[in-house]
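Example complex used in Figure S2.
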Amino acid sequence: MADNNNQELQNTENQDAQTSENEQQEEESMESRRNQYTELEKIDIFDNEFLPQIDSMYNFAYRLTFDEDDAKDLVQETYLKAFRFIDSFQRGTNAKAWLFRILKNSFINDFRKKSKEPSKVDYQEVETYYNSEDVDASITTDLRVEAVQDMIGDEVSNALNSLAVDFRTVIILCDLEGFTYEEMAKILDIPIGTVRSRLHRARNLLKDKLKSYAESMGYQD
Amino acid sequence: MLSNDSSHYERCMELLPLVLDSQASLEDVDFFHTNAANWPEVLDCYNREKAFRDALREKLGRFLAPDDLLVDIRKHIKPQNVS
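Predicted assembly (304 residues):
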């Protein structure tokens, strides 16, 4: 147990160093791709392309932070950064994906760092994830859909919230927000193959959790 | 019923998650729906997975941004405040 805690602390320290580096790279990358918009154009882009995404952004932020105030802070910070770096946004491209990428990075860089607690890691999930990289679509956890349909939203939400953040994120992005694999790969900075394998495992983990709950409610296979 | 050793069966299973996630090309979607009917387990898997995704979406719903969030953001976004 003590070894696990030490490992978690070490992981957190490494993660902090990595996130600072990522943050710097992200800002440098945004600075390097600049357009020159007038103030009126900036307001126009902000009002017509960024602000319409506010509900999706809040939904994503809330599902990452589990807290209304933190979600509001995260969305507000994301919009301020978006405005600050608006010259690096190409008008007419996918504003929602661009904003989600900023929000995700802000969450990793700032919100996780602000928390003094070590990242909570479900070692079973990590082991399941890293032990196999290939996606086998035919190996799918079986779950009676009627059981999920009879559950209330809170029970499904709790199961989703209990997943590690990387797994939770891909389900939110794909199943709730409808992003393509390619968009998700850009938002998360990972290859498309990893998006697919992570999504596959995330859904199976979620089904496992829902299945356990369904069984405790009397559903049988 | 056709054999599960068929390359069409393998292709259908490979395409299944892509079709469900709307990531397959039109040609692949067409291939899937034309051939999946030959294997009841493929159709069954497709229907179960689709129902799971639909149920998930319906049960989870969406949290809408509170009105004051937009007001707060607008308060901070003024051209003269941006460096």
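Chain B touches chain A through 33 residues (CB under 8 Å). The CA atoms of residues 67 and 73 of chain B lie 10 Å apart.
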